[in-house]
Amino acid sequence: MSVITIKTLREIELMRKAGKITAEARSLGRSLVKSGITTQEINKEIFKFIKKSGAAPSFLNYGGFPGSACISVNDEVIHGIPGRRKILEGDIVSIDVGAYVGGYHGDCCMTVGAGEITKDAKKLIEVTRQSFFEGLKYAREGYRISDISHAIQQYVEANGYSLVREYVGHGIGKNLHEGPEIPNFGEPGHGPRLVKGMTLAIEPMVNAGGAAIRVLDDGWTVVTADGSLSAHYENTILITDGEPEILTMAEDI
Ligand code: MG
Hints:
Layout: H1 9-32, H2 39-52, E1 56-57, E2 69-73, E3 76-78, E4 92-101, E5 104-113, H3 119-136, H4 145-158, E6 162-163, E7 169-171, E8 178-182, E9 199-202, E10 205-207, E11 213-215, E12 222-224, E13 230-232, E14 235-238, E15 245-246
């Protein structure tokens, strides 16, 4: 699992296809977030969309996970299990999806607000999203993995938020989780060198309060220890000999 794989042109084509379906599933999930809908209903639509696209939901039954999407609300950081919980006006909702097609995975996430959300929640979502793009600036040949990590950390902490440390970004390809691990914190200049053909899921998980988290009794749902809001943003990207390519590309990213 920790092996870093360099993709061939043929594999990259397949990953573009997986990435496109994954990004479209995220867009669909995003469009459904509104007061009154349950997380299970959003999950069901994502499942149907991924199947209709000829792919399989990467997360379903992964390590026993019971959903096609991880849907995490408010103080839930990641791995929220879709269920009967109703989204309320003002909630923030993370939609994390993966799709598997042609032997390859895509993985992406974003946090969205249900209706009117507070200014603070809006800022948390925007800083989390932008921190991905700050890290992406270093997703180029010549840099090392922790250059991405460091850029994310600097940006997030400068905005007064904290980064979850127990969960990290990752390589991706034939396996949903491959090497290298991509922490969202750390000193620059460490870890593997970035090489053309690497495909990475970069995914900052940002807490409005402290960095500490705990896992609920369901064995999956990760929440902030202090009950503060948390946001998550992720794309699958390709290292090239120039600008990185976002494989989970959609108009609304
Ligand atoms: Mg991921």
